[in-house]
Amino acid sequence: MAQVTAALVKQLREMTDSPMMECKKALVEADGDIDKAVDILRTMGIAKAVKRAGRDTNEGTIAAYVSEDGKLGALLELTCETDFVGNNPKFTGFALDLAKIVAENDPADVEALKACPMGESTVDAELTEMIHVIGENMKINRFQRVTADDGALGSYVHLGGKLADIVSFKLGKAETAAADEFKSFAHDVAMQVAAAAPVAARRDDVPADVIEHELAIYKAQAAESGKPEAIQERMAQGRLEKYFKESVLTEQEFVKDGSVTIGQLAKNVAKSLGDEIEVMSFVRYVFGDAE
What we know:
elongation factor; three-stranded antiparallel β-sheet; EF-Ts_dimer_sf; 46% helix; flat; 291 residues; protein biosynthesis; Tetrahydropterin Synthase, Chain A; UBA-like_sf
């Protein structure tokens, strides 16, 4: 049996806001596996929330770039040594320039990005120059390019560059992308992604293993009720439906107006513009959260 240390109990408590003794019991039952212990606490209805465990990361920023026509975009995480530099406009501007290069050049990885041209030099050379000028080590940590060939992109940056995302929309008419009403809508949806942290844009996009995992939790919770199996199944399916409404972007209540979902909001804006608008996907970065 794995040893359940005080540090492990503390970590589980911070992740779930659960009582210390219950965390210890769950860890003992899970043989020290913290993910299994979280599931045990959830099944018991004790876990109030599951927070991602803190990770030691450098300072820095996430840049979100979207082209003028809304067709190309990229998120890029650039790290440095201190928060002072991480908030420096020269540093954040450099990160945005790098994100633009990612969108326009589609490099395969960080090394390929460093070889891309930047002005009359290369990304690698300019990064080295920035390190010398600012006096701190810097690292291109990760990036992701996003495209919207049949529509347009919307972006949002929050918490001084510590959280950012890009959302992809499918449009029926190309001119819709330039409409102020659509741009405002796209920004609001991207803000929703930042605030509500959905797991997928659409129900069909939720990974099967995630659904299976959640349903197993709900069935275990329902079994605790002691009710007939048929009722337990309905209880579990009802909780899964609630999960979808809370975790799928198009089914979430709009943070600015709880009377409509994001899917309904898209239909309303589409009707107003005489077009069809579909929320397709999103990429969401939290600083220091790379796997």
